[in-house]
Amino acid sequence: MKVPPDVDPRYQKFLRQHVDADMSVQKCDRAMSIKKITAGTGNDCKEVNTFIQATKDRITTVCGDAGTPVNNLFKSNQPFPVVTCKLKSGNRRPNCQYRGTSSTRYIVLGCDKGWPVHYDEGIIDVNRSG
């Protein structure tokens, strides 16, 4: 299945900002810098960014059979491992310094025509430590 042209730019941004199967808490500074993740359109450091540790194909299924619609969003039916990078110092690139934490949570996505284009705040799975 091919991403519709009108959805593709937002899908690509979603992948760049939120999908990294090999992400770890130690990689926050590097990932945020390499992927050029900022707040808005400028060079301001983004306060918090979450990376989902899964393949894009597995994440995309949340917009279909593997997700449950909730208020125009889709909540994953299964928890995903995630790494959350929180700003600890700096306010503009390239001086942003992040602290990473890992957890397991149900992810909540905004989808367009079956493709993820927005990551909403995840719901922590209270049954698993992370």
TrEMBL record:
Cysteines paired by S-S bonds: 28-85, 45-96, 63-111
Name under which the protein is recorded: Zebrafish RNase5
Organism the protein comes from: Danio rerio
Record CDD domains: RNase_A_canonical (cd06265)
Disulfide bond recorded as keyword: yes
Chief subcellular location: secreted
Boundaries of every Ribonuclease A-domain domain copy: 7-123
InterPro entries (UniProt xref): RNaseA, RNaseA-like_dom_sf, RNaseA_AS, RNaseA_domain
UniProt keyword terms in alphabetical order: Disulfide bond, Endonuclease, Hydrolase, Nuclease, Secreted
A single GO molecular function term of this UniProt record: hydrolase activity
SMART domains given in the database record: RNAse_Pc
Keyword Ribonucleoprotein belongs to the record: no
Recorded superkingdom: Eukaryota
Pfam families, sorted: RnaseA (PF00074)
One GO CC annotation: extracellular region
Annotated family: Belongs to the pancreatic ribonuclease family.
Annotated localization: Secreted
Gene3D superfamilies: Ribonuclease A-like domain
